[in-house]
Amino acid sequence: MTSAGAKMHILAEWRTWVGHRQGVDSHTRAESSVFFAELEQKHPDLLSFESDDDKQQLVSCWLLDAGLIKG
Q1: Does 23 fall in a domain?
Q2: Is residue 5 within 8 Å of residue 49, measured between CB atoms?
Q3: Residue 70 resides in a domain
Q4: Per residue in 10-69, pLDDT tens?
Q5: Which domain holds residue 25?
Q6: Each residue of 43-70: b (16+ CB within 10 Å) or e?
Q7: Alpha-carbon distance 49 to 31, whole Å?
Q8: Structural domain tally of the chain?
Q9: Is residue 20 part of a domain?
């Protein structure tokens, strides 16, 4: 999977993931760490893209850039 394809799927997975979390009004980088850990366990295929960067940091940046989390 390319990083662009992974980004698209991961952002969609985030939207599904937060939809199942009740009572959370704002989403933070700390919450993105929990999300990343769940990706590693439940959807490692989404993290199979090649990158020289730390993938957890990269996913957090994608979420931040998309306006899905607060810095």
Answers
A1: yes
A2: yes
A3: no
A4: 999 999 998 877 666 668 888 999 999 999 999 999 999 999 999 999 999 999 999 999
A5: 3-65
A6: eeebbebeeeeebbebbbbbbbeeeebe
A7: 22
A8: 1
A9: yes
